[in-house]
What does this fold into?
Amino acid sequence: MPTASPAFRISSEKTDENPAAWLAVPVFEDEPVAIPQQDSQLEAEIARARATSGFAGKRFETLLVAPGHASAAVPTMVLLGAGPSSEFERETCRRLGAAAAMAIRARGGGPLALVHRAPAAGGTAGWVEAWAEGLTLGEFDAGRYKTQGRGEDRREATIVVPGATVEERAQAAAAADRARLVGGCVNLARELVNEPANLLPPRVLAERARGAAEGTALRVEVLDASAIADLGMGLVMGVAQGSQEPACVIVIEHRPSSAPAAPVLGLVGKGVTFDSGGISIKPAANMERMKDDMAGGAAVVAAMRAIALLDVPLHVVGVIPSVENMPSGSAIRPGDVLRGASGRTVEVIDTDAEGRLILGDALWYARRLGATHLVDIATLTGACAVALGKTTTGVFGRPDGWVDAVRRLADDAGDRSWVLPVFADYGDLLKSDIADTVNVGGRYGGAITAALFVGEFAGELPWAHLDIAGTAWNDEAKPYAPKGPTGVGVRALTALAVAMSRGLAGS
Ligand code: BES
Ligand code: MN
Ligand code: ZN
It folds into this structure.
């Protein structure tokens, strides 16, 4: 039952009947620039504030300008450094919106108005969408279990589009609504990822998925341990067998009557609620972070909600295999051989390479449910984080047209990503002496061999794999995002469904 924040108001004037406590105004480093529909009073105020402070408009620099005279009706101006106008993009805009919301929340919150200013005229609805998305992302509060000092939720926010016509305002309002909805789903994923493993074992993740479907036409079905066994999902069962917590496979279906019979998008998300490594146990340092090993599953849950709320005319199935990976007397051992539902046998060399095992069975199931196109998303390999760092998601798969479309849509939606190769040569590293495959390919190219392992379960279908091991969690607070879960993938998957419903995604 995710709570929705109130809708954005779109106004064409900064001083209107709704007095805000805060007036956020982006300022470019190289102002003055030609700004359409100049608001000369605002320009003068900005010029004065810049002249009397060291504020240079560098990106994410902020300056509070209290009203010259005490009056409750006059807001405190928040100048938002927007950097060079030539580098102002949608993503800059989203991040600035988030930074504004976070800065204001840190100072007690309250109603806010944000003035849209862009270096060039036009594209207003797109910019407003970016502002609204950023403002919504800036509402995320990681302090759910703090009993004191939690910030209050946003009450209202206005986006001011100087000089906007009635029609422009209507378009901007629709765009802001979409952004609020999608941004809210990103925050839902972040909430799920933030939950500690003791409070979010697989069965609770399943309950939360049911909750996320409330108020939508999504159909949720949860396969329990016995259904999993009946289907022969030996890879899911194998990983789960060391834990007291039973496995489940969460299936979420979006099938509006407006959807054509094909294509059918299958979204598969890794739902390991805690990854200790199993018998191949991880070192203690930072192991607490492994509660985020269900971030791919959370992204699928939240994206399914967004896709339903947006009423995307496409048949989409989400499959989230969920387990806890623990060491115990009943855990799988290195050297054990498992047989997945597809019939493929796996020699488990390392029990810490568990994500690819459960994804294998889940991809098989998504195919069985009729998916024609597959995307899986998983905190799969430390190697991917080593290769691309903490800000870029790795994209793998086949054929190139499909993979490139997924990457581009992800990037445009705000989930920065880059394609890594899956040349068949790497597959040699996965040969087993006794089974069809081993589950680890060794030290080199670890993200790629993991992807290849997963891809073996995608059959002949177009398939893309998003490795979010680096991007699911922020290790350091940034002006536009707190330390903690990022909600990566929600916007990418949602954008992909929208694009496919329009026949836009390659292959
Ligand atoms: N969940 C981890 C991947 C991970 C590592 C995510 C660090 C986030 C941060 C995954 O299950 C795992 O343990 N992968 C191993 C694979 C190895 C055993 C081949 C890894 O990356 O070390
Ligand atoms: Mn692992
Ligand atoms: Zn894992």
Summary: The radius of gyration is 24 Å. The chain has two domains: 8-189, 195-501. The chain has a mean pLDDT of 93. The pocket of BES (ligand 1) is lined by residues 275, 293, 350, 352-355, 379-383, 440, 446, 469 (CB under 6 Å).
